[in-house]
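HOLO CASE FILE
Compound: heme C
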Amino acid sequence: MKRILALILGLGLGIGLIGVLPLSADEDKDEREKYPFYPSLLNTTSGKPVKSGEFESPEVCRECHAEIYDQWKGSMHSNAWNDPVFQALWRLGNKETGGLTEKLCAGCHTAIGTISEEILQKDEKGDYKISEIAKHGVQCDVCHSVKAATYKDAKGLEPHNATLLIDPGDVKYGPFKDAKSPHHETSYSELHTKAEFCANCHHVFHPLSGFPIERTYDEWKNSVYQQNGIVCQDCHMATVEDAMEVARTLKKVLRPGKAANEGPERSHIYSHYFVGGNVTIPALLGYNKHADMAKKRLQSAAKVEIIAPAEMKTGQLGTVKVKITNVGAGHNLPTSLTEVRQMWLEVLICDKDGNKILHTGWLDKDHNIEPEATIYNTPGVDKDGHQTVKPWEVARFEYDNTIRPKGSATEVYSFVVPSTQKGPIQIKATLCYRSYPQAVANLLLGKDAPVLPIVDMAAASGSIKVN
Ligand code: HEC
Ligand code: HEC
Ligand code: HEC
Ligand code: HEC
Ligand code: HEC
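Model generated. Tokens follow.
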């Protein structure tokens, strides 16, 4: 199967795409002519590659936007290129697809490396060599050089696969209508205040099959948050505390401040921590503050409740329900790489001395989750139905049991109360999260793989009287 896929991909886009994409061959040609960095849908105002020297390093912005710089540095945006898990998977993809994923993935993880075409250059050892500036991943001058999103409304397509029009140079696009800077021009951009801005990258489609692999934007679009005008920025460019209030009240929280050291006082300033659920990579790269914030963010997302009878008899068949509610995330829980992320339920039912009656969601000695556990995810399969975590192979999801915004999932556990049972039965339910299966981390990071941190997102406990 792998050989067939490699063959299809290896034939190159020209032949490979025909018959696979829902578009006609003409439309497809149009797509490729329209987007010079295809299969990434990035573009520049000149429609041509741009030298990375046309952009300024975040270190330059730091001189006047010190606070914003300190927030951004260490975020997964600043790590998007250096992230060792990205690097490993990207290199594997480039090998297995004959280079087809090179521009596709890099378009979002280093837009500057892609539009400068530096990611296509290699050193003597055959390794990628890109300039220092391109290594800063999703940086100030990527986001603030965005002039427009180029998706085509007419076809019903939403922003995806980096449909960003990049305008390198003096103008910084941002949320203010009256900003004046001694260093650069400014231009008001409504796009930056909308979820559609983030959607350009947080909406990943398989370029051959059109299958939506990362759907954070779609999940949000169908949510109560969207209906109330709450956008990604209101939670991810805010503290976890403010985001929790936003989730609870469905109203924006305003934080006055300054956008530049010498700038005027503004009625609201957005933070640039961009914290999600990744505690692994920031900690691995030495950004403990971001890792701690991600842990807090995860712990703000869900509520766990135990629904159990007050009393049971020995020998009786009993059931206990555990209900998980997505109270804090503006999208499904978990979201994005849902074929890889692991959010699962550990339930322990025991007597008062700790003797187990039922236990699920435990880890084996290799840190794998036991096979009976409930995991909230979307296992990816290739076109022959074999499970895969390689995005270039994913043809569809086997199922999707991620939890919708403000939605819930209820699990039922049955057991027989032991005849020897004395005293009350104790129940403990914990919702756990880690970024990847341990085996995937081991495969990608080899001997450098850490034992992955697990965050307890939420927990509940209860007891049942026995007579
Ligand atoms: C349209 C933009 C886009 C494209 C194209 C894209 N990614 Fe990503 N990638 C993202 C975003 C956004 C995230 C963050 C999602 C999250 O962390 O929940 C991400 C996260 C990842 C992660 C997780 C890193 C971690 O430490 O958890 C890996 C690995 C990754 N991408 C690899 C790839 C590979 C390989 C490709 C190409 C086959 C690719 N990406 C293509 C936007 C993109
Ligand atoms: C010499 C100081 C200085 C430097 C260097 C600087 N800026 Fe600014 N910038 C400012 C000031 C002052 C403002 C206006 C703040 C205000 O009005 O609240 C500003 C405003 C902005 C805005 C808001 C624009 C709008 O219309 O909403 C953005 C975005 C921005 N800067 C990005 C950057 C980026 C990216 C860099 C680095 C490439 C950078 N700045 C470097 C001083 C600077
Ligand atoms: C992932 C994209 C992204 C990156 C990277 C990014 N910004 Fe922003 N920035 C935004 C968005 C979006 C807004 C406006 C949010 C809104 O108004 O809803 C913003 C707002 C701003 C503002 C206006 C003041 C405020 O905070 O509301 C300034 C100034 C600014 N950014 C500078 C920077 C600098 C300097 C860096 C790098 C250290 C940077 N940005 C990195 C997306 C980004
Ligand atoms: C140019 C592409 C791009 C844009 C625009 C962009 N992102 Fe991202 N974002 C990424 C990539 C790539 C990653 C993941 C890097 C990784 O994990 O290796 C990421 C990671 C994140 C994370 C961290 C995820 C985690 O697992 O912890 C959050 C939160 C996030 N982005 C929010 C936003 C928001 C909110 C916006 C809009 C204001 C936005 N992003 C705009 C590309 C982008
Ligand atoms: C109401 C607040 C809220 C809104 C709105 C919101 N998020 Fe989140 N987001 C969260 C919380 C809480 C988490 C942590 C739980 C999780 O991983 O889903 C999270 C996690 C994430 C992650 C990391 C997921 C992972 O496990 O790797 C990404 C990426 C992300 N959000 C992007 C976005 C984007 C893009 C939007 C807008 C389309 C958005 N978020 C809107 C609250 C919000």
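CASE NOTES: The radius of gyration is 24 Å. Residues 76-77, 79-80, 83, 86, 108-109, 111, 138, 142-143, 197-198, 200-202, 232-233, 236, 274-278, 294 surround heme C (ligand 4) (CB under 6 Å).
CLOSED: yes
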